[in-house]
Amino acid sequence: MINQDQLIYKEQAMKYSKFSPFVLAAVLLFTSACKTFEVQNVNYSQQVESVLTPTQSGEVTDSRYGISFNILPFQYQEMEDSSSVIVDEVRLIRNQSGYYFITANGFSNVYVMEPIESGLKLKEKITVSESGLIRPAFNLRAPFVQLVDTETSDIYTLNEKGIKKEENKS
Amino acid sequence: MRSSINYLTIVLISVFSIGIANAQQSDYQIKKQFEDRHAELLTEIEMAESVSATDSLITAVDDFRAEYSDKSEMLDYALYPESFDSKIANLKSEARSAEHKLLIIENQAERLASLTDEVTKFKSELATLSGKSDSLRNEIASSQQSEKKLSNLVTNYRKSVEERDEFIFDMVDSLFVTYNQLAPGAVEELSKTEGAGTIQSGDNPLVIINSILTENIETLKASSKTFTTEDYLRIYALQTKVNDVWENIGDNLVEIYGGNDKSSWKKQIETDLEDWKASASLSMWNSLDEYLEGRNVELGAFDNNSSFFTALDDFVSSESKKSDDEIISSSTYEDFKTFSEFWSSKVMDEWNNYLVEADVLTASQIATIDGKIDTWGEASKPFPTSILIFFGIAIVAIIGLIIALIVK
Questions:
Q1: ipTM entry
Q2: Shortest Cα distance, chain A CAs vs residue B75, angstroms
Q3: What pTM was computed for the model?
């Protein structure tokens, strides 16, 4: 025995079932359109590296390119010490793809960082010198980033995946 | 031989190393070096002390530009919001501006030096002339000599003061020419110029001007009996000139030469100028009044340009009207002749320059009175005697003719 409420429900269900494929298609179309909207061939590159001096708390700020972060986690990675700021200058450059290349005096590695929401995520840790860089500097040599140790004249051609070429001039 | 090869090797390695070192610069380093050199050049430009130094710096800027021109694209980016070209243009503009400023200063310094020499000459010349005048004045005051000899002394004294006054006219002109055409900012620069503030007191134009004022006030006080109206007119004209020049260049002179006593210099000179003006004006108007009274020219009261012109104008107009009213009599003709002689020999000739220069009468006022004097002359001119004789003969002939006709 079907009561009155059940009948009403059944009628409504039949009525909506006619529309539901259309609604579903519209929603899918809308969401897929939102997801696929993107702009290709964006060049994020920074032509000249930024040389940043950390504050006492380790904060470095690049006001021209609008980025600010703390160097202590990098310092800890390198020296296992984040009790105080030892790094005096941080070198930073961004390549065409938008990855940040970060290093400093005494670092053995270049940190390739990917920007994420409110953070930087390690994409690649490129070891360039066991003994540590003495006076590193970045140049943009698109599509690569060139790392020069101006003290030793060692040159490393880098991308976000690692070292593409190494020239040891010393 | 071996040592030569070693030496060559070292040189080659060094050259190679330098080449590598140059090649391994970072863009940031290049930017930094560019900025450092820019700042260095800017400082050198600011500190440049001569036009030749700025000329060399302009060449250095050109070299600097050439050195970095192949990096200009990178520098445009690195120097944003400035650019490579704007940085170079800034240097060039600063260098040109410094050169212009130094050119003015060098010219002004030359002018200042030449003026200081001139002032030194003025000083000694003025001292000689003043000394001569003072000794003549003292001689007159204490003279027990005959009237003729005393008169000669007075004449010499007047000549000496005139000579001195003419010298001051020229000197004041020279000061005016030098200090009235100073370029904007030059006064400030000159006041900082070495030597300007520390100029020897005797060569300081302010000291010279002050001594001129003091001596002239003293001369007027001491020479009431010896000067003629012409002397007083000249002194009044001189005073007017000094006053005008001071109004134009006084502030510049005080700024350059006043040192730490700028306000007291200004106050002292302006007070002396006022005293001299009052004294010269009173003496001149009184002397003019006495002179005219002495020639029976009775003008109304006057003590300035406007009242003097009114008095002259009223006098000539009323005398002219008086002559107009006379039909045959020519009693005013003598008055006209007296006044006309005074007018042509003094006002239009001997005193003319001083009258106009001191604004005792303007050129247009003189022209107005001159026209009225001509009218007065026409009106007062007596009938020629020959006409009167012919007129008498004609009347007698007419009367004779009438009588003859009656008798017939």
A1: 0.70
A2: 9
A3: 0.49
Contacts of residues B171-179 at CB distance under 8 Å and 24 or more positions apart, as own/partner, are: B171/B122, B171/B126, B171/B208, B172/B241, B172/B242, B172/B245, B173/B245, B174/B115, B174/B118, B175/B115, B175/B205, B175/B209, B175/B245, B175/B249, B175/B253, B176/B245, B176/B248, B176/B249, B178/B111, B178/B115, B179/B249, B179/B252, B179/B253, B179/B256
Q: What is the mean pLDDT of residues B246-262?
A: 82
CB contact B77 to A (< 8 Å):
yes
Instruction: Kindly report, residue by residue over B181-237, the tens digit of the pLDDT.
Output: 666 666 666 666 544 444 445 567 788 788 888 888 888 887 666 788 888 898 898
User: What distance in Å separates the CA atoms of residue A114 and residue A116, rounded to the nearest whole number?
Assistant: 6
Tell me the chain A residues in contact with residue B31 when contact means C-beta distances shorter than 8 Å.
48
Structure tokens at B249: 């260049």
Token pair 């026209």 in the structure block, residue: B371
Sort out which chain B residues have CB atoms less than 8 A from A48's CB and list them: 27-28, 31, 74, 77-78
Q: List phi, psi (to 5°) of A106.
A: 85, -10
Beta carbons of A169 and B24 less than 8 Å apart:
yes
Type of residue at A84: S
Identify the pLDDT of residue B224: 65
